[in-house]
Write a structure and sequence with these properties.
- By secondary structure, this protein is an alpha/beta fold.
- It has 2 domains: 9-177, Rossmann fold (3-Layer(aba) Sandwich), CATH 3.40.50; 183-305, Dehydroquinate synthase-like - alpha domain (Dehydroquinate synthase-like, alpha domain).
- The protein is 50% helix and 14% strand.
- It has helices spanning 20-27, 38-42, 45-55, 72-84, 96-111, 183-202, 208-230, 235-255, 259-271, 275-290, 295-304; strands at residues 9-12, 31-35, 59-63, 89-94, 120-121, 131-135, 147-152, 157-162, 170-173.
- A hairpin with a 4-residue loop joins strand 7 and strand 8.
- Helix 6 packs antiparallel against helix 7 and helix 6 (183-202) runs parallel beside helix 10 (275-290).
Length: 309
């Protein structure tokens, strides 16, 4: 039997962030802890998210101290802010860093304890506090998955949590929030998305539905990533990449990943490197070995990339 996890509601496409206020009002939530990073907090992206909240008189408090590799300290500070301000739901805004921090905050808010208590698989007993997850990059898919990663500063280890109770209530992928990404970040985050799609296809946990999602993601990345890098304001390309990360995220959320991510997480923890960069560096090395054992699967990868096999 296969179990397929996905958020209940997913807003995808140009301008969808403008709709979040009406959705949240419909859910009946009153006050959000809005979690992001320093860059987003100072950018023009934050007002695009707070405007629809203000329009519906939804209160919020901003916590913007999330590190590029979110830490136990970030999570515990965010949880304290949530409790001090009486927030009844959380909004995550950014790349995988705020998304992962929020997953941990959400679980701790309803289950108690510390982040270390939930390392590995399905350790929580209660569904996390409701989360509206808004992505600003085309890479991590953290806004739609049951996986999150928190760095234990003392052990210098990235703790990987897989927890069905951390799945967000609603994801938001609006390409208009991504046009300001520089070429380097567009490339790096999109290679993380490509890694998701390839690893989810190669992993022993893949099955018919996830394989189709993986191949679809690879095809979209192959066709539209060059355009998104060449012109960040190419909204057709940005929107196609949004669809690619959604497909790839749903694939690995339900099939699993592999050695590339296992190694990349620890490289990031020890050397303080961006996760997407670690994946890009590790992907060809690992898959060169995997191809020796599942050659037929890599023919599907090659086809998705438009190569003749």
């Amino acid at each position: 039997m296969s179990v397929f996890y996905a958020p209940a509601v997913n807003l995808i496409g140009r301008g969808v962030v403008k709709e979040i206020g009406s959705y949240i009002k419909g859910y009946g939530y009153k006050k959000a802890l809005l979690v992001t990073d320093h860059f987003i907090a100072k950018s023009g992206i934050l007002p695009k998210v707070t405007a629809p909240l203000d329009a519906e008189n939804i209160d919020y408090v901003v916590y913007s101290d999330v590190d590029p590799n979110p830490t136990v300290k970030n999570v515990e500070e965010g949880l304290a802010a949530l409790k001090e301000n009486g927030c009844d739901f959380i909004i995550s805004l950014g790349d995988g860093s705020p998304q992962d921090a929020v997953s941990s905050i959400s679980i701790l808010a309803t289950n108690g304890g510390r982040p270390l208590d939930y390392e590995v698989v399905h350790k929580s007993e209660k569904t996390g506090l409701p989360v509206i997850a808004i992505s600003t990059t085309t890479g991590t898919s953290a806004e739609i998955t049951i996986n999150y990663v928190i760095t234990d500063e003392e052990r210098k280890v990235k703790m990987v949590m897989v927890d069905k109770n951390s799945l967000v209530l609603m994801s938001v992928n609006d390409p208009e929030l991504m046009v300001s990404m520089p070429k380097s970040l567009t490339t790096a985050t999109s290679l993380d998305a490509l890694t998701h799609a390839i690893e989810a296809l190669v992993t022993p946990g893949a099955y018919a539905a996830t394989k189709k999602l993986s191949v679809g993601a690879i095809e979209l990345i192959k066709e539209y990533l060059p355009r998104a890098v060449a012109d960040g304001h190419d909204l057709e390309a940005r929107e196609a990449m949004v669809n690619a990360i959604f497909l790839g995220g749903m694939a690995f959320n339900n099939a699993g990943l592999g050695y590339v991510h296992s190694m990349a997480h620890q490289h990031g923890a020890v050397y303080h490197l961006l996760h997407c960069v670690c994946c890009a560096m590790t992907l060809p090395i690992v898959e060169r070995e995997n191809a020796k054992h599942v050659l037929a699967t890599f023919r599907d990868v090659a086809k998705g990339l438009g190569l003749h096999t």
